[in-house]
Every structure is written in C-alpha cells, then in structure tokens.
Amino acid sequence: MEIINAIILGVIQGLTEFLPVSSSGHLEIFKVILNEEALASESLLMTVILHFATACSTIVVFKKEIVSILTSLVSFEKNENFWFSLKILISMIPAGIAGFFLDTEIEALFNGNLMSVGLMLIITGGLLFLADKAKPTEKKVGILSSFLIGLSQAIAIIPGISRSGATISIAVLLGIDKENAARFSFLMVVPLILGKVVKDLISGEALTYNESLLPLFIGFVFAFVTGMIACRWMIKLVKNSQLKYFSVYCFIVGLIAMASTF
C-alpha cells in the first residue's frame, strides 16, 4: 500500500502543482480518502520530496530561460533577463515573509479540514472563470504587477487555493499576456520551493522519516514525470483560453469536499 499511495500522491502533486486545481487542497483530500494518519504525521519528508520533484520539472521545462536569467544575474547585464529576474525576486517577497513569520500558522492550515479546502477550491474556480474571460493582450509583467502576483502566491499557501491558478488568474486580470502570465507563474515558484526544501532539511524535522526510502523515490519519479507533462500542457491551455474547464472542476470538487463534511 505504501508504494501505491506514493504513486497516487506523486501523480497528484505532479499534476496539481501546475494545473490550476490546488495541489495542497488535493493532497489534503486524498490524505483523508486514503486514511493516511501515518502519512499526515510522518509525511514531511515525502512532501519535501514531491515539491522538489515538481521544482525539478519546472527547471527542465524552462532550462533555457533559467540559464539565460542566471547568466544575466552573474554578469550584471541589465538586459531583459536581468529585469525579469528582478521581478521574480519581487514576487517572492510576500510568500517569503509569510513563510518566515507565519510558519506555525501555515502548518495549522494542513489539518484535513475539507470544509475550508472546498470553499477555497470554489474561490479558485471563480478566479479561473474570470481570467478565462479576459481579452488577449501583449502586456508583460511589470514591477507592481510582479508584487501583486506574488501577493496572490502568498495567499495560495491556503489549501484549496491553487498557486498556479491564483497567480496566473491575477496576472491575466492585471492585463498580462496569458502566455507570459503562465511562464512567470511557473518560474517564480522555483526559488521558493528550493528554499523551502533546504529550510525543512536544515530543520531536521524532515529527516525523522524511519520507513523505507523506496516510496520516496517512487513518489519523486511520478511527481517529476507528471509535473513536466502538466507544465507543458498548462502553458498551452492558458494560451488557448481553456481555463473554464478547470473552473468547473474546482467548483465540483469544492462542493463535494464541503458536502462530505456533513
């Protein structure tokens, strides 16, 4: 069962990290469905591994852009990549502050409260519906918009609020070109995920895992592969204005999650 659960959680993480349906919300739902009490109490390392896998997926998909950005930063060339990286750093500020000062409060949100998860999924569905109706533009991410997108990323820490859904939707509603919005959304989270992975490993809490390492490896592989597929797919979906389907999905799953609590 551990192997099967690792596969399920890996696929869920890989798909929902990029598709706008909330990876954290779905993981909370499936933890309840799988009755994984052990997973809830000892899964910090599994969570770290799964998030690291999706960060690796993003790095592979955007490897050319990431190399160009890093090259510009190291050489201090004030070109388009330099300013793009500056906007990425600005977008990280809200989530960075929330993660540093509200760590305990954030952990308390992951308590299997399906009523809250369902409500947040419905809010995500609403954002996706509005973003899907936005008219095409050629506007790129600016300094102010990068901070506002980052603010939506910080709010998306709440299980049920899709990080990609919130950041892409807010970017599109701010008038940003849809393809640029998706690209910025996926790249802006990589430093935060890697930072969180390092933080959890340094704290030592993630290293208290005493079970077999095989489920961790399998979870990583499935999250990584499905993450790459979902990342490329999502860019096409956003570009072709097909977010409405995920909006409907979030509404349905949100209502089911809320109804299950009665």
What does this structure look like?
With 262 residues, the chain is mostly helical. The chain has one domain. It is 77% helix and 0% strand. The two termini are 28 Å apart. About 2% of the residues have low confidence.
Number of domains: 1
Which residues sit in consecutive blocks of at least 5 with pLDDT less than 50? 38-42
Q: Distance between the terminal alpha carbons, to the nearest Å?
A: 28 Å
Helical content band: over 70%
Oligomeric state of this protein: single chain
Largest sheet: none
Give the overall shape, derived from the CA principal axes.
globular
Task: Briefly characterize the structure.
By secondary structure, this protein is mainly α. The chain has helices at residues 2-16, 23-33, 37-42, 44-61, 63-75, 80-101, 103-109, 114-132, 143-155, 163-173, 178-203, 214-239, 244-259.
Write the layout of secondary structure elements.
Blueprint: H1 2-16, H2 23-33, H3 37-42, H4 44-61, H5 63-75, H6 80-101, H7 103-109, H8 114-132, H9 143-155, H10 163-173, H11 178-203, H12 214-239, H13 244-259
Provide key terms for this protein.
262 residues; mainly alpha; 13 helices; 0% strand; globular
